[in-house]
Amino acid sequence: MTVHQLKKKLTSLLGQDNVLASREDLLCYAYDATKRVHVPEIVVFPGSVQEVSGIFRIASQARTPVVPRGAGSGMTGGALALQGGIVLAMNRFDQILEIDEDNLVAVVQPAVITGRLQRVVQEKGLFYPPDPASLDFSTLGGNIAENSGGLRAVKYGVTKDYVLGLEVVLPSGEVIQTGSKCVKDVVGYNLTQLLVGSEGTLGVVTRAILKLLPLPEAKQTLSAVFPDIHGAGRTVSEIIRRKVIPATIEFLDKNALWCVEHYLQLGLPESAGAFLLIEVDGDPAILEKEIRQVQSICEANQALKIEVAQDEKDQERLWKARRSVSASMAHYGAFKKINEDVVVPRASIPEFIKNVQEISRRFDVPVINFGHAGDGNIHVNVLVMKPEDEPRCHEAVEEIFARTVELGGRISGEHGIGVSKRDYIAKNLEPGVLELMKAIKKSFDPHNILNPNKMFP
Fold first, then answer.
1. Nearest to 281 by CA among 290, 293, 272
2. Phi-psi region for residue 302, left (φ > 0), alpha (ψ -120 to 50) or beta?
3. Which of 12, 39, 224, 442 is most buried by its number of CB atoms within 10 A?
4. Which residues pair with 175 in a beta bridge?
5. Do 218-327 and 333-415 fold alike per CATH?
């Protein structure tokens, strides 16, 4: 089937306004946060599950690739049309269909912005915990596809822990329902959890049932600066050992602190080698005790400076350092950065940072680390200072992945595999597991039309 014939069929199904094929329009959907460019042949905007089903029936008949797309904010190329074909833009699926306060669930469409759902349920005294850094522009469908985490994962878990059920369109055009509003549901295989984190390679989510929690009554925030990463690492381990589970434990390494200080002039100690931002939430009566415990642990591990927020405005001030890391990296003047998101057992963070520092020296490339100390998820930013440095920087990344695996870690904690990491996936998965995953993909998508060439080498 030619592109002209394909466009004619899709226009008949969706209407002319919901099918784009001009070069100018296609370029707007040719990239994501990886900044790679792959131009599709057609972009479509379905408005109903029946239309999504119809698109797949047409694509299946034509053996044309279909690439689902939310906000295009993914970090590993999941929304790129590597083989051209059809980009399935889900923008019109943007409704919060139900907030069920009796069963503590929300029923949503996939293009709902994550932060919007959080604000809507918060007005009702409810709480949707997953909070990726992109929450003000990323979509719930994208979060489900990538099994997104965020800052609160140490206490509340990640997206998969809040998805109870899905409506999904398969590559054949068949529409299936998985899961339910029930807290307990062990009828058959858990297809819901198989689809969460599948990066848009098995089916397209058109509706999701999400678990909600009661909104925590209060929160307390503390920041602490340490002379080195080892003191910060011991602090994290001791906090968990004392049975205090903060909502958030964020960290910045020495290079990240240098960037933030030059960007914001916060007056951090010159000898600062690591920074922790710790937030506890829940019952106000318990919080006072917990924040005092956290402060005591920081002091015992030779923190250079400790601040406890006195009010909401003070909390925002303490958060400013963590939220400004990405913007502050511009002070390094790099040509580009390679952003990875490895995860190690949290007790191994100091050793991991030590390994990264050694790799940074050996390859002569700057590396900035920050992330979620509470769950061991570290954002490793390898800075490419000049275009000719890029091959050496990629060698450094491969070495970082090797050290990650040696520590019992994984090459991705929340960004996924997509295109960027597909050649490294075997570092974590043995051949038998990879073959099983490929067989699952083939079972869902026998003609390999849905988001082909993602995840697997």
1. 290
2. left
3. 224
4. 169
5. yes
For the chain, the straight-line distance linking the first and the last C-alpha, in angstroms and rounded, comes to 28
3-89 placed in CATH 3.30.43.10: yes
Identity of residue 90? M
Backbone angles phi, psi at 181, to 5 degrees: -80, -10
pLDDT tens string 65-110: 999 999 999 999 999 999 999 999 999 999 999 999 999 999 999 9
Residue with tokens 């792959």, as numbered in its chain: 38
What CATH number belongs to 96-214?
A: 3.30.465.10
Ranges of each domain in the chain? 3-89, 96-214, 218-327, 333-415
3-state helix, strand, coil in the chain (%, to 5): 40, 25, 35
Q: Classify burial at 361, counting beta carbons within 10 Å of its beta carbon; exposed 0-12, middle 13-18, buried 19 or more.
A: exposed
pLDDT in tens, 190-208: 999 999 999 999 999 999 9
What predicted TM-score, i.e. pTM, was given to this entire model?
A: 0.95
Instruction: Report the alpha-carbon distance of residue 310 to residue 261 in Å, rounded.
Output: 22
The two tokens of residue 87 are 């980009």
Q: How many residues does the chain have?
A: 457
Q: Are strands 86-89 and 66-69 parallel, antiparallel or unpaired?
A: parallel
Pick from 62, 101, 32: nearest CA to 42: 62
Q: How far is CA 225 from CA 115, 252, 288, 366, 367, in A?
A: 30, 9, 21, 22, 20
CATH of the structural domain 333-415, one choice from 3.30.70.2740, 3.40.640.10, 3.50.30.10, 3.30.70.330: 3.30.70.2740
Measured CA angle at 455 (ends 391, 390), to 5 deg: 10
CATH 3.30.70.3450 for domain 218-327: yes
